[in-house]
Amino acid sequence: MEKITNQQIIADLQSQFGETAIYGIGESHGILQVTVGTDTIVPLIHYLYQHSAFKFQFLTDLAGIHFPDAKGQELGVIYHLHSLENNVRIWIKAYAPIENPVFPTITGLYATANWMEREAFDFYGIIFEGHPNLKRILNMDEMDYFPMRKEYPVEDATRHDKIDELFGR
């Protein structure tokens, strides 16, 4: 069996969804990376899952990200899919404005997305529309902020018990 290449996947996806729907194409350490709009996520992932040759039927990870300087695309989700049969991986990225961080859920295809989406909601405030039980998973329900967003300082500036030399500063 011939190994599937990233170029074959790109060509197939662009012929299926169009070159404007699949953009931001890149590669890191041999892993294909594509960017799509939030409306393309579910159809694309379903297509990759059901494809007769690609068979991306394993969700390795789903992670939230925050880029406060990217106006209109501050919050994002990265989907890590793996084709175990072909030993090929792909990252799918999508972004939304911080004022409306809504992404469709993929729990209908990958049951493991349930906890991953809840974690992204808990830490970044990303809302997964259609999720069966979208609530905090690790933080207290009373929290009114999302701690992994970069709008919060990493360290407590009021502490004076740290010696900067010990922290490489």
Describe this structure in words.
By secondary structure, the protein is α/β, with parallel strands linked by helices. The protein has a single domain, classed as Beta Polymerase, domain 2. It is 20% helix and 26% strand. The protein contains 3 helices and 7 strands; from the N terminus they run αββαββββαβ. The chain has helices spanning 6-17, 41-50, 113-124, and strands at residues 23-28, 31-35, 58-66, 75-83, 88-96, 102-104, 127-129. The strands form 2 sheets. A 5-stranded mixed sheet has the order 1-2-5-4-3. Strands 6-7 form a two-stranded parallel ribbon. Strand 3 and strand 4 (75-83) form a beta hairpin. The longest helix is centred in the N-terminal third of the chain and has 12 residues, at 6-17.
